[in-house]
Amino acid sequence: MQWSDYTNGERIKVLRGKDVTQAALSELTGLSVVTIQKAEQDKQLSLNTLMKIAAALGVDTSVILGQQAPRRAMAQSDRTMMRALSQTVHDTAAGLLPDSVVVEEAAVVREAIDKCWDHYWKGHYTKAGALVVPILPQATAYLRDQVVGAQGEAWGLLADAYRLAAYVANLMGARDLAYSAIGHAQAAAERSDDELQPALVASGRAWVYLRDARLGDALSLAEKAAVDIEPRFSRATMEQLTVYGSHINFAAVVASRMKNEDLVKSYLSQSNATGARMGVEHRARGTLFGPMTADTQAVGIAVALGQTGKALDLIRDIQEPELDALTEAARNRYAMDKAMAQADARQWDASLDTLEKALIEAPTWARHQALPSVIVQKVGRASTARVRRVSALIGVRPGVDSGFAPATSKTAL
Asked: Where's the HTH cro/C1-type domain (predicted)?
């Protein structure tokens, strides 16, 4: 069933979801509960009511009218955050800052950015996006407060803030905002005094390309970003190795999507060598890399290449306690790759066990991912009613490959 097949009232109810009651929506809009009820029952929906409900739910009026489908996986809190993030990205780029913004020291802005990255790598994307909203004007105000000719550090902070905005937008499926934010990040990075900053932003743009199915462009940019920062291993710092390793690993991911096995082999060799040189996982500049990251990413790459046997061999060599070295988001992604490999091997029950465990442990992260739905659809063709329980965790209906499931507003991307 498509979004346009529902009535206006049904669409309001779905968008409201379980998290927002009619009474809560009444408070958010300033409308009476009776007016909300009439709107959901398709008895009365004036233009004024429509506009207030749309604003409160964080969607365009065209979504309620069925002219445009909502972005999947977005709860009301997601939509509210994305609207604020979009406004902030465009306003700061135009030089428009809120009157309340206070010029903070660089260390304060950096601490806020690091805290935002922490939430991002835990898979708390809505919280990370909400934190970027005040960081962007703070970083812009700090830049304005610096003497011309001594703004290199400030430009670097602003580049990081825009890169964060681009990452959140990309995960939320807001591709236009992701392109805009990463473009502003690039302009700031080129004026910073940080030699790693341009490559970090280039890698971020490559990821936007990948999510937009521009595989050739993504690979070219990922390769260039890695080459631009390739360190001399004999004297490379952990920060340099971390950034380089994550870049070359990403190039391997893109090459796997293009089914270019020769490139994948080359990049994985460099990724493994970098991880071995580091010896441990290390976090720097909004990314994490090390030997365990290299090993777990290799599983996803093998799955993408259709090398199921190789993926299972790699999984057998990875011990569960070793995964603690990864970020929560990285552990969750590995679990999805593992479940997909098991599904491809027709290990239906094992795949469901892996998937269900990950969904229970990380429900917030899972609702922004596409892979859980793909796995359920694959396993559902040959498994039991157990699929229904797992499907409920991600808000999809077993056997439904497309359309909008009205049971929840948290359908996976």
From this structure: 18-64
Residues paired with 288 in a beta bridge: 283
SS3 26: helix
Structural domains counted in the chain? 2
Q: Average pLDDT in the 126-143 region? A: 96
The model's pTM: 0.80
| DSSP output for 193-261 | S-TTHHHHHHHHHHHHHHHTT-HHHHHHHHHHHHHHT---TTT--HHHHHHHHHHHHHHHHHHHHTT-H
Higher pLDDT, 221 or 371: 221
Tokens of 310: 């190789």
User: How far are the Cα atoms of 87, 108, 280, 285, 299 from residue 275, in angstroms, in the given order?
Assistant: 40, 32, 7, 17, 15
| Tens digit of each residue's pLDDT (9 = 90 or more) over 276-301 | 999 999 999 888 899 999 999 999 99
Give the Å distances, CA to CA, from 311 to 35, 42, 240, 264, 366: 55, 52, 29, 14, 22
Please give the structure tokens belonging to residue 90. 């465009």
Name the percent of the chain lying above pLDDT 90: 61
Nearest to 363 by CA among 401, 410, 327: 410
DSSP conformation letters of 51-82: HHHHHHHTS-HHHHTTSSPPPTT--HHHHHHH
Residue 372 falls inside a structural domain? no
CATH number at residue 34: 1.10.260.40
Which domain range does residue 33 map to? Answer: 3-64
The pLDDT confidence band at residue 399, using thresholds 50, 70 and 90, is: very low
The last residue of a domain, from among 326, 348, 378: 326
